[in-house]
Amino acid sequence: MIGGLFIYNHKGEVLISRVYRDDIGRNAVDAFRVNVIHARQQVRSPVTNIARTSFFHVKRSNIWLAAVTKQNVNAAMVFEFLYKMCDVMTAYFGKISEENIKNNFVLIYELLDEILDFGYPQNSETGALKTFITQQGIKGQVKTKEEQSQITSQVTGQIGWRREGIKYRRNELFLDVLESVNLLMSPQGQVLSAHVSGRVVMKSYLSGMPECKFGMNDKIVIDKQGKGGASDDPGKSDLGGGSGKQSIAIDDCTFHQCVRLSKFDSERSISFIPPDGEYELMRYRTTKDIILPFRVIPLVREVGRTKLEVKVVIKSNFKPSLLAQKIEVRIPTPLNTSGVQVICMKGKAKYKASENAIVWKIKRMAGMKESQISAEIELLPTNDKKKWARPPISMNFEVPFAPSGLKVRYLKVFESKLNYSDHDVIKWVRYIGRSGIYETRC
Amino acid sequence: MPAVSKGDGMRGLAVFISDIRNCKSKEAEIKRINKELANIRSKFKGDKALDGYSKKKYVCKLLFIFLLGHDIDFGHMEAVNLLSSNKYTEKQIGYLFISVLVNSNSELIRLINNAIKNDLSSRNPTFMCLALHCIANVGSREMAEAFASEIPRILVAGDTMDSVKQSAALCLLRLYKTSPDLVLMGEWTSRVVHLLNDQHMGVVTAAISLITCLSQKNPDEFKTCVSLAVSRLSRIVSSASTDLQDYTYYFVPAPWLSCKLLRLLQCYPPPEDGAVKGRLVECLETILNKAQEPPKSKKVQHSNAKNAILFEAISLIIHYDSEPNLLVRACNQLGQFLQHRETNLRYLALESMCTLASSEFSHEAVKTHIETVINALKTERDVSVRQRAADLLYAMCDRSNAKQIVAEMLSYLETADYSIREEMVLKVAILAEKYAIDYSWYVDTILNLIRIAGDYVSEEVWYRVIQIVINRDDVQGYAAKTVFEALQAPACHENMVKVGGYILGEFGNLIAGDPRSSPLVQFNLLHSKFHLCSVPTRALLLSAYIKFINLFPETKATIQEVLRCDSQIRNSDVELQQRAVEYLKLSSIASTDVLATVLEEMPPFPERESSILAKLKKKKGPGAVSVTELEDSKREGGELNGGGDRGPDTAAMAASNTSTPSPSADLLGIRSAAPVGAAPSSAGSLLVDVFSEAGPTAPSAAVNDDGFLSSAPPSEDPAPPLSEADELLNKFVCKNNGVLFENQLLQIGIKSEYRQNLGRMYLFYGNKTSVQFASFTTTVSCPGELQSQLNVQTKPVEPLVEGGAQIQQVLNIECLSDFSEAPLLNIKFRYGGALQNLTLKLPVTINKFFQPTEMSSHDFFQRWKQLSQPQQEAQKIFKANHSMDTEVLKAKLLGLGTALLDNVDPNPENYVCAGVIQTKSQQVGCLLRLEPNAQAQMYRLTLRCSKDSVSRRLCELLAQQF
Q1: Residue A214 is part of which domain span?
Q2: One domain, residues A279 and A422
Q3: pLDDT of residue B710
């Protein structure tokens, strides 16, 4: 279990220190600073073991969050907690920065008391927390006994993530499918590795205690239905505007705690009572049949010892009606570059010496188009015999579809007590595909 | 940056450094550096000419980036360009870059050397200094090669500036330290020595460091420096504090120079010239006098400088060790420091006193401070000072104060620091042994030692007690009684149990008369400790029990009961189980007579160097144990336990370098040889040193005891080979040199070397008598089919061999094909009219023509499988004739001529060899595998050769070797 939690600024000064167990002393604070923050070599592992004490850290801009333990804990649990804590803090005071942490330290200690008990993670649902940890000081907080007992019963009850008696005039629901696509491609265009990790994020403004059912083009479900003859409800399956392939194979997925796992296990249907407001319904990963939005074709030619010619072509590979945004191609340059000339058709390109790379930015690009950049790199002859390792060309972008091929088939809402039906709910669906680590060797 | 005025530093550099300092994270710093590097690269891009200032600025930035820990792989050329600049700052930065970032890149080194050469030959002293500093900082071999001859010239040239001379001296010192072979002083020696007369004190200080280093290597060449150093020293010492102006440090004239001079003098024995010596003694006296004077300043620097000279002078006095009154004065001076406020001074005083104590002149003077030292041991707060005090006590100990010092050290041991306890224990043990007059005191002391610091008492210490108790009859009864009493303590250390077990087992009968220590009581006492002890101690106790059965028959039933119980006879430890079983059987089967013989009292241990001293020698005894002292104590130790029974036998024992047999050797000597096991005494023959390289392990030639005069028939025909000829042959399978044969008349030595299928053998015939041998002839013959297999050519030897002389004969051997017999050597001569006829087998065996072959595990097993026909393999399983020590085995296998292959056999215990036998007609590949079984003392030897006869022959040969 987590023995303590520390927050450091970039200099290694402790901003927040909360110790949950006696086995963690003050010296652990210093040990992490000396061995990780001030280490000579950059520490790449998120888990560091120093003197039989494990340190799990995440970094948000210049802030280090470190969870410390002497026991053999589940590392995935600790990191899940740390990320959750970042979410909670962001929900309370916005960006995690040194200044914000200093200004809100009382709040942070209060939160830490609530979400960790003796090192065991507790309820970290922002919505629930916000009902009893508020930022308005004690004066503005006049809560009736009823309200207090309601909070208690909610937090300790079976459905801890939603309180009763929520009412909206307009029942609305937003659904975002956010995916990031990762790729490593050989110079000849052969895919060496590719996967998509996606999230389904929901924002729900629904009255009462609605029961929801979420359906997507999961291969297992589709196949089962296909075997069972005619699908039970073909009319509902066009919510995502299906095209291309019919179903996708999901490698693994995790759900928000509101999803009934037993039902998923037996029927593979996703049904849940949603929390109020924004939350992440599920995460998943796919590796098969990924739509790669861009193809990068590099061409590098060494002209003598002092010159390098680079030509890179990018091709967009999706429907011409869609527009990709925020496209950025990063072409690494050798360490002895002494000058760069760039010519590009579209967008802007610049040699960034501080990053040893040429960065080419394009604001917008439609599908089935191509564009190219060529650069001449002058080199300074060195006496070093080391050859340039040619790191891969990486790329960033954003596209308005899901590269995994995931489609939302339906999202049904049932509320038996209140008088509104599935048709009265306004539903919004959006797909966003982003680049993860999208690299092509050259 | 043109706006910046070029005089006042480099603004670009300052901005860059402050940027780096302001970076909030490592990533930001790396980004900034990358940007700067790109900028510098674009500036260095060949086509633009840079002015000196920007070049300097960028090189500086590169240097800074390098010092931050980033790789720099360009800019060397620009730095070298800076060297040829005429501005001091630019040249300086260039040299700085070169000294920090130089790599032995050939073309650059040439350019750098060129620039340095230019600067050295320039008239500008600052440039010369910069170049010299660069040479010294780099100090590489290339630099030494290029400039080692140049620098001495600069050093002694008349027109060189003083500051340059200083740099040159120190630079030369540095080069001498890195590559002494390149710095040849030769002709310069006398002129360098005369630098000691230089006007400039700085030059003298620099030169003296060089001279000290040089004279340590070749003291004779620099002998003349002694008188110069003495006169220089006397001038400094006698000067008033204001005379030397710049070189007076807090009222002390030239303290560094004085210290260095005194240290230089310590490289040499006292000067022979009376005048010089008188002057030196005068100097030393003055230094001692000055130390007594009231301080001229209260500042700590003043006293530090003064004391530095004093301590250096005292160590010179100790080094000379010939001036009794100086030694005594030094000792008194140090005595004052013993109670000084300054911890460092107390430490230094104690340290110097340790060395003073070993001098015969000052030993008594040191002894007067005993109370102070003991006090220091008790009250000193600093542990390192306490340790020095303990060292000093050890050094000043002699017969008169031994009891007091040992008692003090024992009482200190209870509170001593853990790190020094073991050393303290050893010292107490040594002192107690060395100065023991009364052995009961000795036994008491050691038992006390075990009681107080049992954990730190190493094995050697308690081995030694037992050795001494066994060797001294008068102390045995007392020891038994004391041990018995010590064991009665409720908790006693395991070492105490060991000593107790051993001594009671041997001498328990001496105290059995007392009803309080009746046999049964003794046994019960020992047995009550049994269960708390480790396995080796238990084993020792079991041996003590069986001794009890012999000493006290009445305890037999009880002890047998103990041995019979499951925890002994079925003990999971093999050793304990074996002992229990064997002792039980022994006690029940053997008659009392047999028991009495088997379990007789241990014989006295042979006298040899105390094992404790050897141990202390191994530990660094800082200055405490000088060599003479060790020898001293060895002598005294000899008196102590050698007693009257030092016969010729023991002397031989001491000569043979057998290691001390471990006295943990059980009382019965079941496992190891008895401590008095006879070591092979090497025959002190007059000729044997010819073969000194055979080493001590080579068994000396078997002495034909009965003399062969009677055994050899006096006939003209070659005598049949001696019966032991085969045995002699076997000795030479794994080695090439040694004594082949020896009797009362003649010794034959062999030296041989083999290459491919050819060999050369040198035979040395030594006449051991004083009478000459007449008509001395030797013939080498190859009997039977050997004639076609081996070709041996010799030249005849001279027919007369004078008494005590030695003659040599050379044999050329060629191996035509593989063979199994050995050629015969027949020797005939007349000794006092009687004809001597002797035939030996020459140690030429097939394995001599081995060429080692290295191969990998894979290759080995592949070939092994290829040689799988049954006749190609020869295997033998045999009992070990010699010890199964790994190193000995390896040496033998290597001596065989094959390559010993590591990491081939999956079992690391096994040995695997490969080689090719070269004969004129063919080559025979051989693979060998030797699998030792240490428990059964057996070997399995497997040979696979491409020729079956070779396998068999080699197998026969080798089976005798192990």
Answers
A1: 172-224+246-290+403-440
A2: yes
A3: 37
CB contact under 8 A, A62 and B45: no
CATH number for the domain that contains residue A112: 3.30.450.60
Per domain, the residue ranges of chain B are: 10-101, 436-599, 725-844, 847-961
Same domain membership, residue A427 and residue A368: no
Task: State the pLDDT confidence band at B503, using cuts at 50, 70 and 90.
Answer: confident
Reported as a single tens digit per residue, the pLDDT across B350-361 is: 888 888 888 778
Which amino acid appears at position A18 of this protein? Answer: R
B251: which 2 tokens?
């009222």
Picking from A367, A382, A399, the residue at the C-terminal end of a domain is: A399
- Which has the closest alpha carbon to B941: B890, B886, B876? B876
Inter-chain contact A354–B25, Cβ cutoff 8 Å? no
Dihedral sign for Cα atoms in the order B363, B364, B368, B371: positive
The predicted-structure confidence for A288-339, as pLDDT tens digits, reads as follows 889 999 999 999 998 888 889 999 999 999 999 999 999 999 999 988 888 8
The annotation status of B888 as a binding-site residue, yes or no, is no
- B76/A383 Cβ within 8 A: yes
Q: Are residues A372 and A352 in the same domain?
A: yes
CATH numeric code, B847-961:
3.30.310.10
Residue contact B73–A386, C-beta within 8 A = yes
- Each residue's pLDDT tens digit, A24-37: 888 888 899 988 88
Cβ-contact B196, B202 below 8 angstroms: no
Task: Mutation target for B interface from A99, A308, A341, A380: give the one with most B CBs within 10 A.
Answer: A380
Q: What's the DSSP call for residue B934?
A: T
Give the distance from residue B65's alpha carbon to the nearest chain A alpha carbon, in angstroms.
14
Of the candidates B37, B42, B73, the beta carbon closest to that of A384 is on B73
Q: Where are the alpha helices (DSSP H) in A316-404?
A: none
B53 marked ligand binding residue: yes
pTM of the model: 0.57
ipTM confidence:
0.73
Q: Which residue has the tokens 């003296």?
A: B208
Report the residue of A338, A352, A359, A386 to disrupt the B interface, i.e. the one with the largest count of B CBs within 10 Å.
A338
Domain assignment of residue A365, yes or no? yes
Q: Is B199 exposed, middle or buried (0-12, 13-18, 19+ CB in 10 A)?
A: exposed
Most confident of A165-169, B675-679, B741-745, B773-777: A165-169
CATH topology for B725-844 is Immunoglobulin-like (2.60.40)
Mutation site, A10, A336, A383, interface B, largest B CB count within 10 A: A383
CA atoms of A423 and A411, how far apart (whole Å): 11
Measured between beta carbons, the chain B residues lying within 8 angstroms of A384 are 73
